[in-house]
Amino acid sequence: MKPSKLYNKKSIMPISKKPIITLFGIVFLDLLGFGLIIPLLPYYAIRFNASPVEITLLASIYSFFQFLAAPLLGAFSDKYGRKPVLIFSQFGSALGFIILALSTVIVWSNPTHGLIALFISRIIDGISAGNIAVAQTYASDITGREGKSKAMGLLGAAFGLGFAFGPGIGGILGHINPAYPGFLAAFLCLSAAFSVHFFLPESNTNLQKVTHYKFPLTLERLKLLFQDQATGSICLIWFFAMFGYVMLEPIIPLLLHDYFGYGAREAGLFFLAVGIVIIFVQGGLVGRLSKKFGDKGLAFTGGILASLGTAGYAYVAFNGPFNLESSKHLALTFLIFLGSFALVNAVGRSLQTPTLLALLSHSSKGRSEGAVYGVYQGGASLARVMGPALAGILYERSVGLMFLTATFFVSLAALITYLKKETFL
Q1: For residue 79, what pLDDT is reported?
Q2: Which of 68, 193, 266, 326 has its CA 20 to 30 A from that of 365?
Q3: How many CB atoms lie within 10 A of CB 308?
């Protein structure tokens, strides 16, 4: 007779589908709230006379505090439990979103004060943003080795869905009232916090007395990683690719605003279209293509497509800005070009991201996987801090140069993939 419940060796907690489904909903709500404000931040900052550098620093400062806080939240979840950390982080994000929403409602006598409020909101949300890693740890606690890949895939789907549909909803709501997306994001975070409290049991039954702060980019880990060509190369590829990608994210709304005169609604719909492509490719195509062509080929193909799409942005940038009233046909032509290049870039990213992770998983077998993944994610976090800041500096000097620089980093990642592919398992 089959047992009704299985048990994870690391925990006395029974493995059940219910906590995973609940966790899926919580992560979806969390990323939906995050996605709501992605296309709006530049427009919020423009209201306060922010420069391109200040606008992109909003993205950098969020990532910087997330980079610092994520290992701490993970350590606290080892010592005090996953639930309290998840709840704390959700309330923290809600507070950040409320401050963001209020900054758009208050009539500031000095616009700089409104901009400072925006930065405070992003700092608070960045500190709270390590909850995704804690959610992944929770899933690992309750599934063990057999069901871990399925659980992580489910959380990845929640991440993708929330991030895909959030910008579209946020753009439409922001067009109606700039405060609505922030208040809705706060409501979603609070809903997620109460869901954790009432529906998720604690998964960490072996609470540690000492908090172990595991910083991802220690010299020891880097030495360990680069002793092996494959793992070192994959982490380097992901760092350069991510550097180029995050240069685009805060700049695209600015490009739509400065080159085509579009606002939050159009930016949200733009990101929504890209998100749907990512879901379609990662959810349906990657698995089939990987079986047919292999992860090495897909990682390189994805890098090439991403490079072509990014170069397309540069092509549009060097030919604008456009006057929709006097040259409507020209503007529409380049808008179609822009959308096409964005979709090519999205397909490339969607092929590259999961296949690089799969290659890393194969290449790190028998090694310290925690250290390898720590450097892999830590490098990406560092890119998220540096990339937007560089993008803002370059955008002020030359929009086309900014996109060319992003193309350089994405193309460099594709080149290393090609040169080092024989070392990958």
Answers
A1: 80
A2: 68
A3: 18
> Which residue would you say has higher pLDDT here, 204 or 51?
51
* pLDDT tens, position by position, 113-146: 999 999 999 999 888 876 677 777 777 677 655 4
The owner of tokens 């992860």 is 295
pLDDT tens profile 220-269:
666 665 666 788 888 899 999 999 999 998 899 999 999 988 888 888 88
Residue 410 has pLDDT above 90, yes or no: yes
Reduce the secondary structure of 120-172 to three states and give it as a string.
HHHHHHHHHCCHHHHHHHHHHHHHHHHHHHHHHHHHHHHHHHHHHHHHHHHHH
Residue 246 phi/psi, 5-degree rounding, is -75, -15
Q: Is 7 helix (H, G, I), strand (E, B) or coil?
A: strand
User: What is residue 7's predicted lDDT score, i.e. its pLDDT?
Assistant: 38
CB 32 within 8 A of CB 187: no
Q: Are 310 and 244 in contact (CB under 8 A)?
A: yes
Q: Is it the case that residue 2 has pLDDT exceeding 50?
A: no
Mean pLDDT for 47-64 is 92
For 337-347, give one letter per residue: b (16+ CB within 10 A) or e.
ebeebbbbbbb
Helices (H) and strands (E) in the chain, counts: 16, 2
373: its two tokens: 């993944």
By the 10 Å C-beta count (0-12 exposed, 13-18 middle, 19+ buried), 233 is classed as buried
Rounded to whole angstroms, how far apart are CA atoms 57 and 386?
Answer: 9
- Bridge partners (DSSP) of residue 246 are none
CB 338 within 8 A of CB 177: no
Task: Give the model's confidence band at 11: pLDDT under 50 very low, under 70 low, under 90 confident, else very high.
Answer: very low
Q: Six-digit token pair at 56?
A: 């992109």
- Tokens representing residue 355 in the block: 């296949």
Please give the domain boundaries of the chain with CATH numbers for all domains.
14-204 (1.20.1250.20), 216-425 (1.20.1250.20)
CA distance 220 to 17: 38
Distance between start and end Cα atoms, the chain: 40
